[in-house]
Amino acid sequence: MIDTHSHLFEEEFKNDLNECIKRCKEKNVNKIILVGFSCETNRLALDLSKKYDLFYPTAGIHPSEAGINYQNDLNDLYSFVKENKVYAIGECGLDYHYGKDNIDYQKIVFKKQIELAIAMDLPIIIHMRDATLDTYEILSRYKGKIKGVMHCYSGSVEMAKEFIKLGMYISLGGPVTFKNAKESKRVAVEIPLEKLLIETDCPFLAPTPYRGTRNESSYVALVLEEIARLREMSASEVDEITTLNAKKLFNI
User: Fold this and answer.
1) CA 156/CA 76 separation, integer angstroms
2) Cα 148 to chain center, whole Å?
3) How far apart are CA 21 and CA 23, in angstroms?
4) Angle at 174 between CA 16 and CA 242, to 5 degrees
5) In this predicted model, what pLDDT tens digit does every residue of 6-26 receive, in sequence order?
6) Residues of the chain with pLDDT under 50
7) In what order do the strands lie in the sheet with 2-6?
């Protein structure tokens, strides 16, 4: 298995990271995409990947980080990805959940990161929250040029299929295991398995039965098992295909 979206560099893991990694190996989680989302976390992801061979770092600017000093952050990102090996740009995107005060900055920073990903021939990791239409509108401008993933996707089946047409994979995390997550379960069943990825987004969004507690990368096995159950397939079949999908997208 590959956890395609993890933040194991966060403070929540400072006391037991080695134990978390051990649990990953016990669950056959052998590769983890370590996703940066700010100048600081991009460096944390890179530094951790140098210590452990199962980590593959990315670098990006989260929409919540977009503000008046966005050009300085972009300059730092440009320099960082040119000087260091990263496997994707992002996470980046649009997030209107807490308001739209910085919406103009969000859109600028999002577009610049898409263009950076295209220039470097890297996939892009998309964060989208309460901003489906704007996210789709911006991505559609780059149709035919982009590849990437809609991370922790929570939208409709219909929009998932539209994002796939733009060159995106759909990634599902812990919420697909929630009893009331009817649309996520529909997505798990109805989109082509060849376009599906699995993730944790740890330390956030722990799957059932750990909902409400700290998430960790080994729990991606629970996401896999739920998707296999919903699709009436064996876990090994879903594992094989989603792992190949991740290797193809991230070139690992």
Assistant:
1) 35
2) 9
3) 5
4) 95
5) 999 999 999 999 999 999 999
6) none
7) 2-6, 31-34, 55-57
